[in-house]
Structure to design on (494 residues):
């Protein structure tokens, strides 16, 4: 795949049918119509721009064709002039981004971000541009990340569509290009490389060879980006309907080596006896299957970031635990333990919230537990522990374990599925009898202190944990049985 710049498609006039479609898209939004009128009356330009135009064109002819979400507008008015034009009309305004020329506003439930034309320059050592006001819409569009985001429609009476870089043609061809040279664009802002990955998943676009070549050559520049911004783009990618192709681009260009090296590390060389799967491809397939199960469950959140991270990362402990055994066999003993530690380390470094980190790590740790179930040999105690250890992640664990079966042997796949069906049935039966979702000791802390004559403290906690383990082992006990067991445990302890 060549890194040489590709020839630019010729940019012609926007077809009349598209012009008419866009006029109609703007006209269905009274807020945009009024905004355009206010700016035109004051002698200023105002244009709907960026993702709002792109998504509206993608949805043209559907019920979703009206501009949705936050709307981005660009104008030749300076920020203080924008604030003046909004005064008395917008319900509220905010100016946190005013140093970058952006004024935020809310008008009858519609959120707007209005930004003065810019002609920024970048120092190429950080993502922070040297903000410079521009005088030209085309110059403003030229600084944007991709051609599909470099289209604008005037909010003035003419509703003119401006597409100087062929974004509409790229959108129709499902092609991802930059307005200028890709290397220059990514040098200005390396985060754009991760946005390219996301747009593969979000919009189904295929990056041009020049874009892929620049991403590959410049992947190391991603180290300039803060973990928070990397995490936000990675999460947006994972939350799309079909992120696999985007993740393959993420890995093949070397971007993953910079910010999520555990993922490309799964591309381990398959041993000559083929005693283990391609762990990288397996992990992507697990993700595909987890998404399918997630979307088929009306009672579960979708898209589910925790489940998707767990599906993608559940085997990241394998490279560190691979061992070559006698007779050509390969083992990965305790890779779930190592994997859980690696998950905590990487997701923490990417600034994921603590609850997300712990949930993904726990799912990684538990994903192999089911394989000790055999053909149903687990005792009721083992089933209770499985449920209790999973806690509120049980539904996700079910999906992860089922998705982890990627064998092409249909008989083996059917057998594993049937076995897991039996485990879920046993969980359901025990849950109905014992309320497994809220397993607690048969005696609470107050009862323990009363029976043993203890004040609050460490020993009460130890007694509580003993009774919890007893409850998991034997199921519910009546109060007399629980008290007798507690007294016997205490007598043996002291």
């Amino acid at each position: 795949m060549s890194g040489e710049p590709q020839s630019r498609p010729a940019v012609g006039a926007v077809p009349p049918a598209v012009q008419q479609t866009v006029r109609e898209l703007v006209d269905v939004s009274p807020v945009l119509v009024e905004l355009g009128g206010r700016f035109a009356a004051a002698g200023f330009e105002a244009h709907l721009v960026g993702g709002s135009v792109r998504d509206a064109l993608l949805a043209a002819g559907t019920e979703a064709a009206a501009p949705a979400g936050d709307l981005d507008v660009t104008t030749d008015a300076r920020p203080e002039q924008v604030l003046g034009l909004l005064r008395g009309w917008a319900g509220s305004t905010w100016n946190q981004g005013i140093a970058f020329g952006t004024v935020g506003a809310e008008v009858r439930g519609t959120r707007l971000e209005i930004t003065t034309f810019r002609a920024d320059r970048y120092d190429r050592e950080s993502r922070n541009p040297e903000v410079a006001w521009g005088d030209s819409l085309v110059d403003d569009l030229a600084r944007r990340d991709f051609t599909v985001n470099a289209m604008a429609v005037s909010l003035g009476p003419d509703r003119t569509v401006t597409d100087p870089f062929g974004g509409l043609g790229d959108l129709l061809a499902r092609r991802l290009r930059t307005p200028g040279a890709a290397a220059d664009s990514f040098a200005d802002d390396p985060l754009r490389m991760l946005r390219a990955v996301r747009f593969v998943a979000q919009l189904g676009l295929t990056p041009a060879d020049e874009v892929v070549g620049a991403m590959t050559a410049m992947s190391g520049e991603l180290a300039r980006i803060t973990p928070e911004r990397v995490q936000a783009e990675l999460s947006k990618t994972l939350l799309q309907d079909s992120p696999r192709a985007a993740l393959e681009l993420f890995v093949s260009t070397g971007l993953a080596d910079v910010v999520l090296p555990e993922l490309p590390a799964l591309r381990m060389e398959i041993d000559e006896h083929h005693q283990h799967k391609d762990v990288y491809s397996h992990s992507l397939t697990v993700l595909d299957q987890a998404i399918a199960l997630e979307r088929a469950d009306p009672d579960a959140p979708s898209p589910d970031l925790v489940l998707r991270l767990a599906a993608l990362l559940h085997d990241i402990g394998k490279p560190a635990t691979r061992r070559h055994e006698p007779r050509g066999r390969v083992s990965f003993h305790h890779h779930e333990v190592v994997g859980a530690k690696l998950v905590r380390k990487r997701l923490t470094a990417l600034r994921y919230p603590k609850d997300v980190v712990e949930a993904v790590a726990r799912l990684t740790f538990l994903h192999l537990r089911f394989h000790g179930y055999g053909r149903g040999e687990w005792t009721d105690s083992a089933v209770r522990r499985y449920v209790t250890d999973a806690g509120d992640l049980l539904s996700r664990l079910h999906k992860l374990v089922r998705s982890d079966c990627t064998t092409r042997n249909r008989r083996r796949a059917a057998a594993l599925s049937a076995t897991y069906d039996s485990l879920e049935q046993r969980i359901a039966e025990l849950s109905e009898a014992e309320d497994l979702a809220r397993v607690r000791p048969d005696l609470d802390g107050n009862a323990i202190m009363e029976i043993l004559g203890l004040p609050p403290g460490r020993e009460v906690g130890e007694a509580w944990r003993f009774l919890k383990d007893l409850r998991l082992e034997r199921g519910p006990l009546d109060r007399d049985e629980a008290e007798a067991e507690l007294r016997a445990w205490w007598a043996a302890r002291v």
Confidence is low (pLDDT under 50) at residues 1-11, 271-276. The chain is about 50% helix and 10% strand. The longest helix spans residues 410-434. The radius of gyration is 29 Å.
